[in-house]
Amino acid sequence: MAKNKSTKVARAGFPPCQNPCTSDIEYTPAEVEFANAVDKYKREHHRTFPTNRELFYILLSLGYRKVDAPGDIDVESSLSRSHREELGKD
Prior knowledge:
Elements: H1 29-45, H2 52-61, H3 75-78, H4 81-86
């Protein structure tokens, strides 16, 4: 049986995936704190892929609270400068 070649599929509207361990992206302190909290949760609860609800509670445990009325998410404006440069948006 022939092995299938691994191919990257472009996801419409999403930036290309990057390996955070090997990319040159500079993460903000808040991004690093969140990533570390998720990693800690995954290790302590033996979860490879936390659910959205679990991620929500991780955010709450870091002190995040809703402070404004719901609205559209403007991902580009919330990206750090290095992320925008990486995507060619700066």
